[in-house]
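hiii so um. not sure if this is the right channel but i have a protein structure encoded as tokens and i wanna go backwards to a sequence. like what aa goes where. can anyone help
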């Protein structure tokens, strides 16, 4: 009997993984048309870009500045240098001088960038940058005093710790508050964009979102902290305690709010010695929570509360059922 020969229908030879001829499937020639479309889009007013001779502030440089300020505010905590009374002044002088140089450069760039963005005439960017930087450095003792009271409030309000070291090293509330306090001073001085870079960096690290324009008194204690939101025009008094998920926000805003309500108070006022428990939302620029009040968890408030008031939700009705199935018959 004649033998039949099987004919393979494969059009290519199977090779072990990794032995496929390199470059045989590249599509580099399809990249340039996409690049041309992107470049054409950036030439229109519909896209945002930053192309030109004036640089934008460095996000990484701002983060380094945050670390350096914390090294100055908390000597010995965030550095490998061993500090003692004999070299403390030298250490602080060295760190503060380096901070001045780094921050002055970034503030000057931020001012120039703002001038370019808004088409301003010359505002003497470099002179302003150095003047605002030294003005900020002069606030460092004040910031230190505020953070000292924030730490004391944390120790007084949280039975889970008795160590200032633990609060400084570990607590996200203090990290967010310390970055806010340095950003707030720069915001008050009129430094563009840098304060927001700082607080949004804190937001990314801790989940706590504090606008640098908020006004916050000493002794703030944010416990746990994740999901806390404090809006730009919020006013918070002394020794206020906030728990996770608290929102101090604005009421519903119109579509053009970004231009029409910039100078309007949109966020609430929280007076001294107030406690606000988890997941509570307080909204509105006319809303005032009176001193020494306690606001319970999961509450929605759009109206003011008198001093020395306790606001609680009525206990919900709970339903209980047996998870076991009824016996079959």
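sure thing!! here u go:
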């Amino acid at each position: 009997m004649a033998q039949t020969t099987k004919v393979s229908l494969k059009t290519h030879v199977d090779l072990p993984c990794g032995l496929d001829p390199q470059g045989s499937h590249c599509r580099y020639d399809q990249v340039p048309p996409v690049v041309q479309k992107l470049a054409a889009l950036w030439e229109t007013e519909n896209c945002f870009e930053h192309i030109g001779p004036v640089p934008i502030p460095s996000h990484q440089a701002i983060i380094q500045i945050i670390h350096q300020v914390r090294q100055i505010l908390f000597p010995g905590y965030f550095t490998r240098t061993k500090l003692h009374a004999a070299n403390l002044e030298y250490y602080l002088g060295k760190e503060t001088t380096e901070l001045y140089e780094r921050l002055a450069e970034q503030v000057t760039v931020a001012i120039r960038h703002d001038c370019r963005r808004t088409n301003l005439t010359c505002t003497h960017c470099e002179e302003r940058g150095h003047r605002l930087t030294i003005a900020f450095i002069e606030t460092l003792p004040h910031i230190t005093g505020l953070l000292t009271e924030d730490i004391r409030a944390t120790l007084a309000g949280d039975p889970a710790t008795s160590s200032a070291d633990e609060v400084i090293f570990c607590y996200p509330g203090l990290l967010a508050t310390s970055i806010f306090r340095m950003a707030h001073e720069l915001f008050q001085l009129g430094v563009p964009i840098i304060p927001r870079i700082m607080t949004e960096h804190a937001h990314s690290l801790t989940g706590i979102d504090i606008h640098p324009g908020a006004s916050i008194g000493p002794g703030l204690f944010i416990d746990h902290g994740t999901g806390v939101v404090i809006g730009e025009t919020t006013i918070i008094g002394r020794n206020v305690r906030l728990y996770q998920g608290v929102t101090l926000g604005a009421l519903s805003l119109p579509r053009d709010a970004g231009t029409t309500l910039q100078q309007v108070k949109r966020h609430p006022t929280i007076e001294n010695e107030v406690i606000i428990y988890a997941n509570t939302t307080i909204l509105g620029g006319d809303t005032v929570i009176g001193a020494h009040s306690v606001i319970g968890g999961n509450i929605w408030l759009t109206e003011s509360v008198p001093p020395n008031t306790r606001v609680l939700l009525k206990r919900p009705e709970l339903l209980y059922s047996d998870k076991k199935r009824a016996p079959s018959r």
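oh and The chain has a mean pLDDT of 89.
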